[in-house]
């Protein structure tokens, strides 16, 4: 059984470890079924072959694809370049891929559509996602509720649907919540691995990163604790089950 390649972008160890644990738990994976690479700490192996993996899962992170090159932190620039270097092969061979939050920016940028902060950013919290007609027939979404809440928090977003993509989920604040390129390449704007405890960890870590006023952190944590967010993890679970 081939492992999943897990690419992580968060330079904060507590956040990266919590995210990895969430991907394992929500995806019903064990660590020995994954190859975890923290791109803030190491480069992609020179001999990395996608043939060795069942699929690729990209986590979220504080970087923005749309930031000007001169404004990018060197580590974030290196992480972005590493992720983008894999996308031509992933999309050409329609390899199973799940890009979470940052991943939709990577996929959209690779496919030549606009990613920017012009519209559709969402504050940290929950958003209500709705299935499109294409979403209702997608293998990862079929049979799920037409509307469900998910955890979000992002400064940039896809401004248009990339050519060749199916539009699977939308919300009032951000139209492109989940897309699919080909049959197997997926990306979500929300976090399918996140639960209230995980988002509380991220709120505390990123309270001074410009996502929200620092003094709002405790109110955001209370809101997340009160939220009913259970459906998104089924999407990650189905992805792993289908391709693993």
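^ structure tokens above, recovered residues below v
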């Amino acid at each position: 059984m081939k492992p999943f390649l897990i690419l992580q972008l968060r330079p904060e160890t507590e956040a990266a470890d919590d995210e990895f644990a969430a991907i394992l738990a929500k995806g019903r994976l064990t660590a020995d079924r994954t190859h975890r690479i923290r791109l803030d700490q190491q480069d992609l192996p020179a001999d990395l072959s996608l043939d060795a993996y069942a699929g690729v899962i990209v986590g979220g992170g504080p970087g923005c694809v749309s930031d000007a090159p001169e404004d990018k932190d060197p580590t974030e620039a290196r992480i972005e370049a590493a992720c983008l270097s894999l996308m031509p092969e992933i999309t050409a061979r329609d390899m199973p891929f799940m890009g979470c939050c940052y991943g939709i920016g990577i996929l959209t940028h690779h496919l030549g559509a606009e990613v920017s902060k012009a519209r559709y950013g969402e504050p940290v919290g929950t958003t209500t996602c709705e299935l499109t007609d294409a979403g209702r027939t997608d293998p990862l979404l079929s049979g799920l509720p037409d509307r469900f809440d998910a955890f979000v928090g992002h400064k940039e977003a896809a401004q248009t649907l990339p050519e060749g993509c199916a539009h699977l989920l939308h919300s009032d604040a951000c139209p492109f919540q989940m897309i699919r390129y080909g049959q197997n390449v997926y990306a979500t704007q929300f976090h399918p691995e996140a639960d209230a405890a995980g988002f509380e960890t991220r709120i505390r870590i990123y309270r001074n990163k410009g996502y929200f006023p620092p003094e709002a952190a405790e109110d955001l944590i209370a809101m997340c604790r009160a939220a009913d967010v259970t459906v998104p993890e089924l999407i990650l679970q189905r992805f792993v089950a289908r391709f693993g």
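The radius of gyration is 16 Å.
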